[in-house]
From TrEMBL:
This is DUF4166 domain-containing protein. Residues 390-549 form the DUF4166 domain. InterPro entries: DUF4166 (IPR025311), NAD(P)-bd_dom_sf (IPR036291), Sacchrp_dh_NADP-bd (IPR005097). Residues 3-128 form the Saccharopine dehydrogenase NADP binding domain. It comes from Parasedimentitalea maritima. It comes from the Bacteria.
């Protein structure tokens, strides 16, 4: 099978070629305006699939189709927003030469308009699918899964790329093209417009039981979902899709430019694309992680319900997700499982199960959440269905809302430095001891729990509650004037409590000084065990305590 990849050495096209590198019966023509770059990409390519460089611009494709004789054309060039009056030239060429077509288009108008070629594509005996990327095909797959149990009325979603993912110049041009420009969408059941990047929302992407992303700012983007999904979802009243690029300082600069353009009717900021492209690709710091969310409200059996889907991608795996949809379709095509003939947006091309296959053997995870039951125990509220993966005794300690006491034996260590001792006193930690009786009393407290730990004759208390705002999906523990927001992460039969943010009297404190340490709960020999370590950069160990607990019989 021979494939032409227009923009084959670019960000998306290059990653697609890498994903298909293990396919022996495949020849990929890596095409673009710059033959040297195409040749360099092919020289560095590793895999059993064959690659060939070609100097070929999308505008000249029709002049080379007979010579190249491809079985499939993939447009990974863009920006599709700037294709102009002759925007569908590649598709028209493919129909004329009876060659199937896929693209990475993220331009709402472009993808929405593809259906006008449906009859011609059917007559040519080919498939023409547009928008074969995370937006909209993955979003659509999620919504179809959710719609099995509820009637969808509103949709909000967003994608947050890793700061290390790299962004193509054409993507930056597309973003600046719609910044402050009218964006078509559905609100209150009616078609209307808003302005790109002028509206923002915050969300914490959190797959249950995994380390969530930081609470991220998402801003409205002009993506295919806004136009192609409303006709496919009866009863949909509102849809909003955003992107959450980091660092947030640059994101806010884009918001300001967009608002200025919308208010003062300024020209497009596309001429600034190369500047933003260079800055964004230089500012690579923070966690090398990305994610995506889809939040839905609607009705089930006449009652209001809501549900959300979350995806987390670690390290270098995340940047490949936009190319995985085309990878999956190509692999199916090689197995004679091709899409039906015709031209349409790619919203129906893959299921969530198809994506699950793509994510296997990669550090990409997804899961659903429902609003926490206010009557449920605190840790169950935060962990959702992942709570049921905890060891039995860890569940037993946390799955209770009544006052109770657990007791056992513990060992306590304390840091030796002056700052360490001062912080230990501020938190109220006990003195060091090799072995002492320990007792933990749990009491309901304003929607959370008050924990009173007694080591020997020394007691200290903290209050735990579910975080909100920037601390959403986190457990917050209050020690006097200090709040520490902790992620609840399940791994290898252990519940880890990982510090993510902290504040003093509500004022955020620098993360560089955030206390850390490997703290976890588990079960050993049928007994609850805890291992808590609290340390800080420069300061070192503040306190650590390990031991076991059992439920005391209530009088």
């Amino acid at each position: 099978m021979k494939i032409i990849i227009l923009g084959g050495y670019g960000v998306f096209g290059g990653r697609l070629a890498e994903l298909l590198a293990d396919t022996p019966d495949l020849t990929m023509l890596i095409c673009g305006r710059n033959l040297d770059r195409a040749t360099q990409f092919c020289d560095n390519f590793r895999g059993v699939a064959a690659v060939q460089p070609a100097q070929l611009d999308r505008s000249a494709l029709d002049q080379h189709m007979d010579r190249l004789s491809p079985d499939l054309v993939i447009d990974a060039s863009g920006p599709f927003q700037n294709y102009g009056d002759d925007g569908y030239r590649v598709i028209e060429t493919c129909i004329r030469f009876k060659v199937s077509y896929l693209d990475f288009a993220d331009a709402a108008e472009f993808v929405f308009g593809i259906s006008k070629f449906d009859q011609a594509a059917k007559e040519a005996g080919i498939f023409v699918l547009s928008g074969v990327s995370s937006f909209p095909i993955l979003t659509a797959a999620v919504l179809r899964e959710i719609s099995k149990t509820m009637e969808i009325e509103t949709v909000q979603g967003g994608i947050a790329p890793s700061p290390y993912a790299g962004i193509g110049l054409n993507v930056m041009r597309a973003v600046l093209g719609y910044a402050g420009a009218p964006v078509k969408l559905t609100r209150n059941g009616k078609r209307t417009t808003a302005h790109g990047l002028t509206e923002s929302k915050r969300c914490t992407v959190a797959v249950p039981g995994l380390l969530p992303l930081k609470n991220i700012r998402f801003s409205l983007v002009d993506v295919p979902e806004l136009q192609v999904l409303p006709p496919e979802i009866p009863g949909l009243k509102d849809i909003w899709m955003g992107a959450g690029p980091v660092p947030e300082t640059l994101h806010r600069m884009l918001n300001m430019l967009a608002k200025a353009r919308a208010k003062f009717n300024l020209p497009s900021f596309v001429p600034l694309a190369s500047i933003f492209y260079k800055i964004l690709n230089l500012m690579k710091f923070g966690e090398h992680r990305g994610g995506m969310f889809v939040h839905v409200t609607g009705r089930q059996d006449g009652e209001p319900v809501e549900r959300s889907w979350h995806l987390l991608a670690e390290g270098d795996d995340g940047p490949y997700i936009p190319s995985m949809a085309i990878e999956a379709i190509v692999r199916k095509h090689l197995k004679a499982e091709s899409p039906e003939h015709g031209a349409r947006p790619a919203t129906q091309a893959l299921t969530l199960a198809d994506y699950q296959v793509q994510f296997e053997n990669r550090t990409i995870y997804m899961g659903f959440r429902a609003p926490p039951n206010a009557d449920a125990a605190l840790y169950r509220q935060i962990l959702g269905h992942a709570f049921d993966r905890l060891p039995t005794q860890v569940q037993a300690l946390h799955d209770d809302t009544a006052a109770r006491t657990w007791a056992g034996i513990a060992r306590v260590q304390r840091g030796a430095g002056l700052l360490s001792k001062a912080l230990g006193r501020l938190f109220g930690f006990p003195e060091a001891t090799n072995q002492c009786p320990v007792k933990v009393q749990f009491e309901p407290h304003k929607g959370g729990e008050k924990w009173t730990r007694t080591f020997g004759h020394k007691s200290f208390s903290s209050v735990q509650f579910a975080g909100t705002g920037r601390n959403d999906k986190l457990l917050v523990e209050r020690f006097g004037p200090i709040n520490v927001a902790l992620a609840l992460v399940i791994d290898d039969g252990k519940l880890f409590l990982i510090p993510r943010r902290w504040s003093l009297l509500g004022v955020p404190l620098p993360k560089v000084f955030l206390p850390s340490g490997s703290s976890h709960e588990t079960q050993k020999d049928g007994t609850f065990h805890f291992d808590v370590e609290i340390s800080a950069p420069v300061i070192g160990l503040i306190a650590a305590y390990q031991g076991s607990l059992e439920l005391l019989a209530q009088p």
